[in-house]
Design brief:
- The complex is a heterodimer.
- By secondary structure, chain A is an all-alpha fold.
- Chain A folds into 2 domains: 153 residues, Cytochrome c-like domain (Cytochrome Bc1 Complex, Chain D, domain 2); 180 residues, Orthogonal Bundle (Cytochrome Bc1 Complex, Chain D, domain 2), CATH 1.10.760.10.
- Helices cover 38% and strands 1% of the residues of chain A.
- Chain A is built from 13 helices and 2 strands.
- In chain A, strands 1-2 form a two-stranded antiparallel ribbon.
- Chain A starts with a helix and ends with a helix.
- About 3% of the residues of chain A have low confidence.
- In chain B, the strands form 2 sheets. An 8-stranded parallel beta sheet of chain B has the order 1-2-3-4-5-6-7-10, sandwiched between helices. Chain B has a two-stranded antiparallel sheet with strand order 8-9.
- The longest helix of chain B has 16 residues.
- Chain B starts with a helix and ends in a 6-residue tail after the last helix.
- The chains are: A mainly alpha, B alpha/beta.
Chain lengths: 361, 274
């Protein structure tokens, strides 16, 4: 009993931000531990294979993946910028509609891309290769250029489509290894779990206040929860989704339609998981009215390095993101469809705290 | 008959987006808004083109402000069924029922223009007994208009308590399960329900058994609608019409026609001229 009292006292006095009650402690602990244990993707026989990982890493930087031999995956996913590009919207052979998504912590997700049009990392890795606005290549073209490297890892492919998928699987195998390092938040979280007052005290005071907002009044953790700070799903958060003068980005609605029509989804012949357990979410995904204009709830790990933000890169800084949610326009949300998002009317000091917290991820 | 209808739907789905779809099954969209934030992006001509491309026979339009509805009506009086919203901008959604000038606004517009209904307004619980809401119920009775109410069952009950003969279109069928919708329809013979922004009644062109039973029990009470609560959702109107026609094809022809347009036409009793 005496030990417990001392431990509680330590929690309350260790940090000047404010005391932590049991509910807040539990909410914080849910965002770890980090890093997660790496588990191979059953749908990708190259997942975890060192030779495939090495091939995928080389190909990521190889212009032979582009039709005109002038671009690579790394032309947009820049290693120095967390594998994003710092632009509001991507620039391939032609301008793209969405922000270039950063590449990290990609293993084990259910859906990929801003609209979730892929149910595996390898299928998502295939899209830019064949998209006419991006690398504009094809399975036939890649086979002409990469057969030796491919066959050394996968053996001969029966057809060009399988060849293309194999290349995408090698790219996915390497991208699965991109994991953000432990952060100041992780140190704080683990110290909290261990009752390590000194460890907790090392966490910046402003970040601690921001964390309280994040898991408390802000309700940010309702969607950005778990070790990756994302529920892995999609939502509408009041961001404009017009595209040009006469159209819209359908978001998740278009993503589901594309997913179900794709020969590369996990229901198809390219899924290496013979048990097909990986295909269960795809089997059950349903197209809903609310999906129109919904976009991925992104992971917040390493978010400091991935500006600008939102699906269209329309918010330049984390402070702008915090202000967007703080003063969210409820008219842009359906009255009965979205109950979590409410204007918070944060002070500038609270916004600074929230940003300070996000920058520790 | 069902297969013939489905064949038309499948054929229409294969047409290009901008092509007129006049041969599609008749359909009235009972839940569209054309609010101020849509006017610049979608001028009336562009908005009407979207409605016609979707093959809609008529469209119930209510807007914040009503100016949007009037603009559309002027552009296509054959297509638009005006419904008067009490909001002068969309920001009044949760405050209007405490604002006496909202009722004054409705009264003034009713003297100036013709409407089929008053709504869609948002009202919950005891707020339905406030003086502003009461005045709207009186005006609906006086002008013989239906009320398009977005709210809970309690609010709807309170509206009927004020005028047992009121004709009320329950937006989104209250977002309550079919059993609760059934209870309300049984209790109030002049209650209709729109199915806007709901997915639980149908999936992949098939009607849910509980909803099918409800449609069969109350074939004269349901209608469908898109709910364009943001301007971007105007681009969903065509997709929604396709989705709706697909699940309607899973119902017997007369019942499908009722939900597609006949119930809406009956409720609106719309006449463009006095």
């Amino acid at each position: 009993m005496k030990v417990l009292a001392l431990a509680l006292l330590a929690l309350f006095v260790a940090h000047p931000a404010r005391a932590i009650d049991a509910a807040e402690r539990e909410a914080i602990l849910l965002h770890g531990p980090w890093p997660p244990e790496a588990t191979p993707d059953p749908s990708n026989r190259a997942s975890g294979d060192p030779a495939a990982i090495a091939l995928g890493q080389r190909l990521f930087f190889d212009v032979r993946l582009s039709r005109d031999l002038d671009r690579a995956c790394a032309s947009c996913h820049l290693p120095a910028q967390a594998y994003a590009d710092g632009r509001p919207r991507g620039e391939g052979l032609r301008p793209l509609d969405r922000n270039t998504i950063a590449l990290a912590n990609l293993g084990g997700r259910r859906w990929y891309g801003w609209d979730g049009r892929s149910d595996s990392l390898w299928a998502q890795s295939l899209h830019p290769i064949v998209d006419e606005r991006e690398l504009a290549a094809s399975g036939t073209l890649l086979r002409d250029r990469l057969e030796r490297e491919h066959d050394a890892v996968f053996g001969p492919a029966d057809d060009d489509e399988i060849f293309l998928v194999d290349i995408a699987k090698a790219l996915a195998a390497w991208q699965e290894t991109l994991v953000t390092p432990r952060s100041a938040f992780d140190d704080y979280r683990d110290a909290l779990e261990a009752g390590d007052a000194a460890g907790m005290a090392a966490y910046p005071v402003a970040a601690r206040r921001g964390l309280s907002l994040f898991v408390g009044r802000g309700q940010c953790a309702t969607c950005h929860f778990g070790p990756s700070f994302s529920n892995g799903e999609f939502d509408s958060v009041g961001i404009n989704y017009f595209l040009g003068p006469d159209g819209v980005d359908r978001g998740r609605h278009g993503g589901i339609a594309a997913l179900l029509a794709s020969p590369f989804n996990l229901l198809g012949r390219h899924n290496d998981d013979s048990a097909r357990t990986t295909a269960a979410p795809t089997t059950h995904v349903a197209l809903l009215h609310r999906n129109w204009g919904e976009f991925r709830v992104p992971s917040l790990r390493g978010v400091k390095a991935t500006a600008p933000y939102m699906h269209d890169g329309s918010l330049a800084t984390l402070a702008e993101v915090a202000r967007h949610y703080s003063e969210i326009d409820l008219d842009r949300l359906h009255q009965d469809g979205q109950l979590t998002l409410q204007p918070l009317h944060l002070t500038e000091a609270e916004i600074a705290d929230l940003v300070a917290f996000l920058e520790t991820l | 008959m069902r297969h013939a209808t489905l064949a038309i739907i499948l054929f229409a789905a294969g047409l290009s987006g901008g092509q007129a779809l006049a041969d599609q099954p008749r359909f009235i969209d009972a839940h569209v808004h054309y609010s101020h934030d849509a006017w610049d992006r979608l001028p009336p001509e562009a908005a009407i083109r979207i409605l016609r491309d979707a093959g809609l026979a008529q469209v119930f339009v209510s807007s914040s402000s009503d100016e949007g509805t009037q603009r559309l009506y002027q552009a296509a009086p054959d297509l638009i069924v005006p419904v008067l919203r009490p909001y002068r901008n969309r920001g009044e959604l949760s405050t209007w029922f405490r604002d006496p000038t909202a009722a004054e606004h409705v009264e003034a517009r009713l003297k100036q223009y013709r409407y089929a209904g008053i709504g869609e307004f948002h009202i919950y619980g005891a707020d339905a007994d406030g003086p502003v809401m009461r005045r709207l119920v009186q005006l609906a009775k006086e002008y013989k208009l239906f009320l398009h109410a977005h709210g809970d069952a309690e609010a709807v009950r309170r509206l009927f308590a004020q005028d047992p003969e009121a004709r009320i279109l329950w937006a989104h069928a209250g977002f309550v399960p079919p059993a609760e919708v059934r209870a309300m329809l049984a209790a109030y013979p002049t209650l209709w329900a729109d199915l806007a922004f709901r997915n639980d009644h149908a999936a992949d062109g098939r009607v849910d058994p509980a909803w099918r039973a409800l449609f069969e029990a109350y074939p004269d009470r349901f209608m469908a609608g898109t709910d364009t609560f943001t301007p971007e959702r105007w681009y969903y109107i065509g997709e929604h019409a396709r989705w709706t026609r697909a699940w309607l094809a899973d119902l017997p022809g007369p019942l499908a026609e009722n939900i597609a347009w006949r119930n809406a036409a009956t409720l609106a009793r719309w006449q463009a001229t006095p």
